[in-house]
Amino acid sequence: MVSSNTSVEKITVEHVLIRSSNIFATVKASLEALVPRLDDGFLTLLRFGLIDRARQELEAAATLSIFGSRDHGALLAIAGLNRRAIQYDIGNPLTASLMTRHKVSTALYAPIRVLLRESPEGEVAFEYDRPVSTFGQFGDERVDIVARKLDESLENVLRKAAN
Fold it and tell me: In Å, how far are 22, 36, 74, 75, 134 from 150, measured between CA atoms?
């Protein structure tokens, strides 16, 4: 039930699946070598008002970083399943700021969630929702331009990690 102060809008999201012929551990190691963990020291700089230094650090950082990860495979043990599945938050704080400055609601999708998983049959793959489609719902060409670039960067690095 939707109340008068709530609105609901349907959107179309493109889901991407990138398969790998490599084993899970190899793909995981490849991704984590290609995409470094985010150094969140820039947050301390921002807290102290050192905005220019924070910007410089972010500009010198990798195009994409891993903000965090969660082992969903371990969680499936509760259901008696033995699976490998890791969810990563991948993105770039500067890229996010390029979108949120125009539409703060884009923060719902930044960083991007990427799942590296192994199926019961042993197929290893990355899955994620294409940034162009998730950010496209906001109807802002300035956001769309950034989302297209993010989409390309993310797909390229995941394909590289998968191979």
Answer: 25, 16, 29, 30, 12
